[in-house]
Amino acid sequence: LCHFFVQVENVRLLDRLSSRKSALGTLYLTATHVIFVENGSETRKETWVLHSQISSIEKQATTATGCPLLIRCKNFQVIQLVIPQERDCHDIYISLIRLARPVKYEELYCFSFNPKLDKEEREQGWKLVDLNEEYNRMGIPNNYWQISDVNRDYGVCDSYPTEVYVPKSATAHIIVGSSKFRSRRRFPALSYYCKDNNASICRSSQPLSGFSARCLEDEQMLQAIRKANPGSDFIYVVDTRPKLNAMANRAAGKGYENEDNYSNIKFQFIGIENIHVMRNSLQKMLEVCELKSPSMSDFLWGLENSGWLKHIKAIMDAGIFIAKAVAEEGVSVLVHCSDGWDRTAQVCSVASLLLDPYYRTMKGFMVLIEKDWVSFGHKFNHRYGNLDGDPKEISPVIDQFIECVWQLMEQFPCAFEFNERFLIHIQHHIYSCQFGNFLCNSQKERRELKIQERTYSFWAHLWKNRADYLNPLYRSDHSQTQGTLHPEMAPCNFLYKFWSGMYNRFEKGLHPRQSVTDYLMAVKEETQQLEEELEVLKERLANLQKSQLYDNKTEQRDRGKQLGTSTSNNSLANTPQEYSNDLKSFPSRSPSQGDEEDSALILTQDNLKSSDPDLSANSDQESGVEDLSCRSPSCLPSEDSGKDSDEAVFLAV
Amino acid sequence: TDEWRLSCINKEFSVCPSYPPVVIVPKSIDDEALRKVAMFRHGSRFPVLSYYHKKNGMVMMRSSQPLTGTNGRRCKEDEKLINATLRPGKRGYIIDTRSLNVAQQARAKGGGFEQEVHYPQWRRIHKCIERFNILQESLIKLVEACNDQSHNMDRWLSKLEASNWLTHIKEILTAACLAAQEGASVLVHGTEGTDSTLQVTSLAQIILDPRCRTLRGFESLVVREWLQAGHPFQQRCAQSAYSNSKQKWEAPVFLLFLDCVWQILRQFPCSFEFNEQFLIMLFEHAYASQFGTFLGNNENERSKLKLPQKTMSLWSWVNRSEELSKFQNPLYEANSLVIWPSVAPQSLQLWEGIFLRWNRPSKFLDEAHEEMINIIRYNKELQAKVNALRRQLAEMETDDRMQENL
User: Fold this and answer.
1) Mean pLDDT across chain B
2) What are the strands of the beta sheet with A4-14, ordered from one edge?
3) Together in a domain, B48 and B111
4) Which of A566, A568, B9, B289 has the smallest set of CB atoms within 10 Å of its CB?
5) Do B106 and B237 reside in the same domain of the chain?
6) Are residues B181 and B118 in the same domain?
7) What is the pLDDT of residues A232-270, one digit of tens each?
8) Which residue numbers delimit the Myotubularin phosphatase domain (chain B) (predicted)?
9) pTM of the entire structure?
10) Mean pLDDT computed over A167-182
C-alpha cells in the first residue's frame, strides 16, 4: 500500500445479505484502487477494487451510525460502506467520482501496472495472438480470398484493421465504392472461412440505401462474396436488427439491402435489440440480483421481466442460423446490424464458435475475441466506460457474448477446453483496464497510443495461468470437440439459465459449495503424478530384478543406498495420502477436521485466488468467504451465537 | 441411551394405525402415559424420536397436531413427554409446518397447536408448507409448462413461476434448515404429521447426518421416515401429473422431498454416495413399481396385505451390486460435516432430470457424466497399480536385505 491520498478509519463494510454481519476497518484510496482493510482479524482481510471497475457510486442519507456509500462494480460486485463522518464520506464520494471516470487514457491502470516482466517477455506476450496466423489456419489467402492493403493507413475505414481479407475478385475500386455506401464506411470483409466447403461469414455495416438508393460497387462486392463460394448460387444477408428498427433507419438514408437490387441474395432479419434495450435489460436483471431476500416469485418474475435471457436466446439463435447456413447448406453469409460493431460481432463470434472447434480451445477463444471484437473495432472504450463518456454508449455487448459461451458450456460440457472461471476472468479484465488489449475504440487509436509498447497483454497473462482454466472433461479426441456444435433451437427455452456464477459472482454463498471442476482437476493432477510414479516404480522393479540375477554383495549395497533415497523422495511426493494433503483447497478429501460446524467447502474462491494472483489483489476474492452462508440458513446455527436473533431471521423470511 | 427407549406399545397397530409396531420414546414416559398422549394427538400420532444428533444430544421429534380444539384442551402427559426430551435449562422449538392462520383454523375442527403457556420451554415457529391439492396443481402446471413446445422465453419463465413449484421447494428446504439448527431440540408437526412433517425431518437429517448421504443410509432414511412413519404412498402417489380426475388425496409430497434432496446434491456434488439416477429411480417406484415396497399407506396396511410375503422388496433388488453401481456418484468423498444448502432463488433450479427428461437432449450431458466416471476410474486403476508395485518392491527389498544379512 503506497501513496494513498485518503485514509479513513472505523469504516464499516456491510454484508449485503445479512445485516448482522459487517466488518470494521480502514478505508484507503490510492491512485488506482479502493482498499478496505479489516481491523483485528489475524488475516487482515483486504478488499481491493480497481477504480476502473467502479460503475456507480451512491451516497445515501446519513443515519445514526454514519454515512452509507454504495459502490457498484462492473464485475457485479456491490460494496456497501458506512463511513462515520459525513464530511469524510463526501470527500471519498467526490474523489471516487473523479477517479472512476478518468478523462485521459494515460490515467488508466494499465499504464502503471507492472508485472515485472522484461521488455522481451512483454513483446512476446503481444505476439501470442496473431491474426495473420489465424487467417492462415483458416486456409487463407487462397484462390478465392486475399489480403487487401486498401485500408493500410486507415484511409478507407478508420474503425477497421489495416489488414482485411476480401474476395479476390473485389478490386480496390469496388471496396472503396462499397465502403462509401456503408455506414462508417465499414465495407463487407471476411470474418470466418470454412475450408471444407468454401462458405464464409462476412461482416459489414448497414447499406446507405434509404428508400431507393443503389450502389453498383456494393452490389459487385456482394457478388464477389458469392463467387468466392463456387458451391453455392446465393448468399444470405442477415440483418441482426428487428425489422422495425431497420425500416426506421431507411428514413435516415440508411437501411437494408433490397433483394431486387442485389442478385442472388436471400435477405433475413434476426431481431436482436439495440444497445439501449440491452443496457436497460441488464440493469433490471441486476436489480433482481440485488434484492435482499427475494421470494422465488420475485426472482423469476424479475428475471423474466428483465428480458435478459430472451436477448441471450436471440443472439444464440442468430449464431445458430448462420452456423447452419455455413455448415449444412454451404452458403456464405453477410452479417450486419447498424454500424456492424456490436450485434454483428456477437453473432459472428457465436457462429464461429459453433462452427470451428478451434475457437473452443483456450488459445482459439483468445484469437476469436481478438478477431471479431478487437480488430474489427468494437468500441471497448465506449461500451465499457473506460474513460468518462456518454453513459448512453455503455452496454453489455461482450458480456452477452460471454454468457452465450457459458450457456453453450452448460449444454455441451465436454466441448470447451476452458472452464467457467476463464470466462469470468475475461469479463473481469475487459473492464479492469489492467492490460492494454481492450483499450480504445479501434486498432487505429490503440496504435496511436502505442499500447503494445506501454502496456502488457492480457492474453499472455491468461496463457501463463492456463492450468487454472482447464475444463477437466475436455478431451481433444472427444466427439463433442469435433466439428460443428448443434444446439437445440426454438422450443427449448428452458435451456437458457440464469448465470449466478457471473451476476452473483461475489456472493459465494449462492453457489454450489463443492466444485465438480476443481474436484476433477485435482483427480487428474493426481492421476498424472501416479502415472509418473508408475514409471519410476516399473523401472526400479526392472533394475531390482536384473540385479537379483547378479547376486553381488557390493553392488547390492550401493544400489541399496540409491534405492533408499529414491524411495523416500518418491513416497514423499507421491503417496495418495500425502498427496491429498497438498490439496489445500479441497477439504472434502481430508474430512477429518470435523470441528468446523459450518461445512466450509469453499472450493471456488480458493482456486480463484490462487489461479490469478493479480485478480485477487484487485478485487476481493476473499470477502465472500466468511459470509458464505449469507442467504442460506447456514449462518444461523452456531451454538454460542444468540439463538433469538437467529430465529428472528428465519421468522422474517 | 439413558434418555430414550424402544416401546412396543404399538405392537398390533393398536394405538396408532399409521405408526410402526416399535417406536422410540423418552425413557421417563411409560406406555400408559403414551396411550393418553396418543388420544391427544391427531390420528394418535404421539411424539416419537425421529433423529438423535450424537454430537450434542440434540433431538428431533415428530408427531401430529395436538387436539386442543377451540376451548384449548390440555393433556398433562403430552406436556410431560415433550418437556422430558429437553435437558435441564435448554429450550426447544416446535416447528409447525402450517401458517399460524391455518393452525388456528384447525382448532375449529378439533385440532390446533401447543400453547406456549403450557409448554414454557418451547418456542413455536410456523412455517408455511403447502399441502394436497395445492401441491398437485403446482405439479400439473409445471409439467404442462415443461411439455409446452410453443412458448417463447418469456412465457417459459412466467409459467415456471406460476407453477410455484420452486416456491414449495424453497419453503420446504427453509423449514428443514431451521429444524436442523444445531444445538436446539425440535418437535415437528403439521396436521396429520404424515406429509410436510416428514419432508422436514428427513431433509434435516440429510443436512446433519453424513450417513443419510450414503446409499444404504438414504435407503434406511426412506424406510424410517417415509415408509414406517406412515406416509400414505397409496393415496399420494396414485395418478401423478397427467391425471384429470381430481383425486382428493393425491399430492407429490415425496417427489418434492426427492427434488429437495437433488437441490442439496447439486450444491454439494461430492458429498453424496448416490447420484441423480437413484432419486429418479425412487420417484418412479413410488408411483408404479413391480416391488411391494411403496404399496399401501403404512406398515399396518402392508402387513395386512402380507406384502412382505407376497412381493419382492425394492431394496433387495437395488442393493445387488450390479444395480447399485448405476446409482453410485463417482465424485463421492465421505464428508463428515454438516452441509447447509443455500435456499436463495439463485441457488435453486428446476430439476431437469425429472421434469425435462423427455424434452431435453441429454446426450451431451450423459457423455459428460461418462467422461467423469472414466477420469475417476482411471485414477483408481492407477492407484491400485502403484500400490501393488510398491508392495512388490518393498517385499523384494526386504528379501534382499535378509539375504544380505544372511
Assistant:
1) 90
2) A46-50, A33-38, A22-30, A4-14, A78-83, A67-73, A54-59
3) yes
4) A568
5) yes
6) yes
7) 999 999 999 999 999 999 999 999 999 999 989 999 999
8) 1-355
9) 0.89
10) 95
Domain co-membership, B355 together with B369: no
Residue type, A406: W
Q: How far is A413 from chain B (nearest CA, A)?
A: 6
Helical (H) or strand (E) element with A239: strand A235-239
- Using CB atoms within 10 Å of the CB of residue A541, give its burial: 0 to 12 exposed, 13 to 18 middle, 19+ buried: middle
Here the cell at position A468 is: 487454472
A83 is in an annotated binding site: no
Say what the alpha-carbon torsion angle B139, B140, B144, B145 is, to the nearest 10 degrees: -40
pLDDT value, residue B317: 92
The domain in which residue B381 lies consists of 365-406
pLDDT over 60 at B198, yes or no: yes
CA atoms within 13 A on the CB side of A235: 29
CA B194, B200, B202, B203 torsion-angle sign:
positive
Helix axes B165-180, B196-208, angle to 10 degrees: 60
Q: Does residue B378 carry a pLDDT above 50?
A: yes
Q: Which of A2, A1, A3, A28 is nearest to A13 (CA)?
A: A28
**Matching residue, cell 453424496:** B272
The C-alpha cell 515485472 sits at: A116
pLDDT band at A200 (very low <50, low <70, confident <90, very high): very high
Q: Cell 467526490, residue?
A: A94
Q: How far apart are CA A627 and CA B354, in angstroms?
A: 33
Q: 10 Å Cβ neighbour count for B194?
A: 24
CA-nearest of A209, A262, A203 to A238 is A203
Over 90: is that where the pLDDT of B206 sits? yes
A339 is in an annotated binding site: yes
Q: What's the distance, CA A352 to chain centroid?
A: 17
pLDDT in tens, A521-545: 999 999 999 999 999 999 988 888 8
**Same-domain status, B374 and B244:** no
B92 pLDDT higher than 80: yes
Among chain A residues, CA nearest to B93: A647
Q: What is the pLDDT of residues A344-379, one digit of tens each?
A: 999 999 999 999 999 999 999 999 999 999 999 999
Q: How far apart are CA A185 and CA B81, in angstroms?
A: 86
Which grid cell is B42?
Answer: 391427531
Please identify which of the residues A89, A157, A194, A337 carries the catalytic annotation. A337
Nearest-by-CA chain A residue for B263: A512
Give CA–CA dist B51/B83, Å, rounded.
17
Q: Are B363 and B369 in contact (CB under 8 A)?
A: no
Q: Looking at the DSSP assignment, which residues form a beta bridge with residue B62?
A: B48, B188
Q: What is the 3-state secondary structure (H, E, C) of A159-176?
A: CCCCCEEEECCCCHHHHH
Q: Greater confidence, B13 or B401?
A: B13
Q: Indicate if A337 belongs to the active site.
A: yes
Domain end position, chosen among B341, B360, B379: B360
Q: Is A602 annotated as a binding residue?
A: no
CB contact under 8 A, B93 and A647: yes
| pLDDT higher than 60, residue A619 | no
Residues B299 and B382 in one domain: no
A37 phi/psi in degrees, rounded to 5: -115, 120
Same domain, B251 and B382: no
* Residues in A touching B166 (Cβ below 8 Å): 296, 300
- Alpha carbon B55 to chain centroid distance? 21
* SS3 category, B401: helix
| Residue A78 to residues A21, A458, B79, Cα–Cα distance (Å) | 15, 25, 50
Q: Which domains does chain A have, with CATH numbers?
A: 6-101 (2.30.29.30), 119-519 (3.90.190.10)
Does B211 lie in the same domain as B294? yes
Asked if B352 reaches chain A (Cβ–Cβ under 8 Å), the answer is yes
Tell me how far apart the alpha carbons of residues A177 and A173 are, in angstroms, rounded to a whole number: 6
| Shortest distance, CA B88 to any CA of chain A (angstroms) | 17
Count up the domains in chain B and report the number: 2
